[in-house]
Amino acid sequence: MKQVLVDVRPWNKELAITALESGADGIITDSAERVRELGRITVIAPDGDLVPGEDIIEITIKSTEDQDAAMELARRTPVIVHTPDWTVIPLENLVAVADSVIAVVKNLREA
After folding, report:
1. By CB count within 10 A, which of 38, 56, 61, 95 is most buried?
2. Are residues 62 and 29 in the same domain?
3. How far apart are CA 72 and CA 10, in angstroms?
């Protein structure tokens, strides 16, 4: 199941409003308070509904070792995966292990 999380770091109020109005599933930010002033949505922030490093992990994959670490983490907790090139590290490898993998894309077409 696809979920759309919108990263508004650094803070971008217009993007946060667009995410809320468009039905995004969550917003990633540095401060949940700003988002909560705008509306109700899942907030991923140090003071949010999901706390990075505790409830959800962000990892950048640049090597097979990073991919292995992401696979291990995804077995236990949701993982937001950043990678410079999905052709090198295919997303299918990670999704096969767990459905808690969240891929970072630049636009909805990439999703």
Report:
1. 61
2. no
3. 29
Expressed as residue numbers, the domain containing 92 is: 57-103
Tell whether the model's pLDDT for residue 40 goes beyond 80: yes
Q: Give the total number of structural domains in the chain.
A: 2
Does 66 reside within a domain? Answer: yes
Closest of 34, 74, 78 to residue 56, by C-alpha: 78
17: its two tokens: 């409003």
**85 phi and psi, to 5 degrees?**
-150, 105
Give the DSSP H or E segment for 57.
Answer: strand 57-60
Contact 50, 25 (CB under 8 A): no
Determine, yes or no, domain membership for 24: yes
Look up residue 51 and give its two tokens.
């706390």
Compute the residue count for the chain.
111
> Does this model's pTM top 0.85?
no
Q: 3-class SS at 44? A: strand
